[in-house]
From TrEMBL:
It holds the Pfam family PPR. InterPro entries: PPR_At4g14850-like_plant, PPR_rpt, TPR-like_helical_dom_sf. It comes from the Eukaryota. Keywords: Repeat. PPR repeats lie at residues 74-108, 175-209, 404-438, 506-540. PANTHER family: OS07G0578800 PROTEIN-RELATED, OS08G0340900 PROTEIN. This is Pentacotripeptide-repeat region of PRORP domain-containing protein. The keyword Disulfide bond does not apply.
Amino acid sequence: MRGRGFGLTQHSLAGVLSCEALDLSCGIQLHGIATKTGLLDADPFVGTALLNLYGRHGCLDDVIGVFEDMPSKSLVTWNSMLTLFGQHGYPGDCAGLFRDIMKENCALSECTFMGILSGCSCEQDLVLGEQIHGLVIKNGFESASSVLNSLINMYVKCKFVSLAEKVFKELHVPDVVSWNIMIGAWAKTGKPEVALELFSRMSMDGLLPNQATFVSTVNACTGFEVQVYGEFMHAKIIRNAFQSDAFIGSALVDFYVKFENLKAAHHCFNEIREKNVVSWSALISGYANRSSSTSLYLLQKMVSLGFQPNEFSFSAVLKGSCASELQQLHCLITKMGYECNDYVWTSLITSYAKNGLISGAMAFVTAPGERLSVVSSNVIAGIYNRTGQFHETLKLLSALEDPDVVSWNIVIEACARDGNYREVFELFSYMHAFGVRPDKYTFVSLLVACCKLYNLATGSSVHGLMIKMDFSRCDTIVCNVLMDMYGKCGCIRSTIKTFDEMSDRNIISWTMLISALGANGYANNALERFRGMESEGIQPDGIAFTAVLTACRHGGLVREGLELFQLMKTYYKVEPEMDHYHGVVDLLAKNGHLKEAEEMIMSMPFPPNALVWRSFLEGCKRLHKNRVPELAEYPVKSFFIAFD
């Protein structure tokens, strides 16, 4: 163009800069031309195109440099910066830019809100996300599907699926993107049945599923206990001619691998037209658990065909490798330049340690005259911790010059496991003094220590710190442990308050609440909550039944306890275990129903243990004033074995 005498304009230059295929070196040359010709300063159009070019290549420093040098900025420029910061995980910078846009009195657009919402990607960003949601409504964008989809996606990334669902229901006509986000959300949160129900509703609304839809639904099917749902989805994929798609095919491979159907997994792998690293890694992962030699062969074949393994490929092979294969894998990792990748290096160290070669792991990760890196130290310390070598854990991590939050968490957990609960809080004080910000795992360890010490005052202080740091509201695991602490310390009001304020509850949350109510003398309330759990569509498991039967024991609710026990197997399809039989025998014996307790013992499909007999005999003692009645013809041997 320039050779024929045509001069560059801002539009022609911006058009070239916007090409997806343009490499970074050419982009830098064009940047120089734009500066030399004055086009960069003449119009924000060229500067915005340059921002996006550097953003595509991950050069954020150059993005910021161009943005700051631009004499004038359009709303498109601001929106591009918001999106780039959001996509690269800088929510704080996103928020700062958004405030600058507001100060400039720019007219906000759909792209503005989409950009700022893309930066809200974890629990800690929820407050910002909710504020943006308010501005969306205030500025009249509540009916814009692209903005609402961004809101739904934001709530999903912040792990508040219930709020995402609320926004989803406000959509007049959800599009494929809306459905895909919600299907993927329920698939990731362990509710595959809801994900498949949404898929069915989407089909009934006349929308055709796309690649993302099928990937999410196949991933959801891995959450079921049976393979039939995934096979049904596989048939749908074939009917829609998507079986050769690399992403869908990889999801199918992963699905069949998780059900240990390697024949079907290999078939789906062969159906993929253009295999990629993801599909190879999925197949390798399947064989890693069954045949480490096959997974290693597949990795070598993958390399020979010109594919570059990624960190997940190596991690999958290392997971199942034996001692004889480690050296070969180690050489391949070094040869392909992954010796500096923390994820691969961590997997390698773990594999050495798993094969009983901790000293070998230490030798490989420690260069002569150098200390272990923080990541390597954390991995080996974690292995020491899990194998009960607490002193080795402390010795290794105390040598670190700059321990991170993971290091502190491992040391705190090591002290807790060793029963040194008071030292846990001393370590936490040191951690705070070093300026290391605690995470949810830190708080879990602190709350567990409070449970063991039955220290309500300290537990409440920890909760106060969690509220201050915005941890108690966002994470289900932390809230579950918090409820357990309050329940065991006898503060049932705080237990209920914590539960009621949770937006995402799982079966553990309900079980913790039922246990706390039962242990603190609120048996009828525990039964009400058990029924409430059912009404919310959560199927009780064996642990939930143990909790509610224990509540009946504490409250003397014989009729209710027996009804629940009878319904366990017939209605809920939960097979009673020793704890359940013990709970019912104890309930009957404590309330004077010795004949029924004896019949329950006689009906057990396995020999009763010492706890069952003790509950029965204590009931006899209570009712018959130290005289034990004759037992029915039950094998006496089992009675003595139980107390052996």
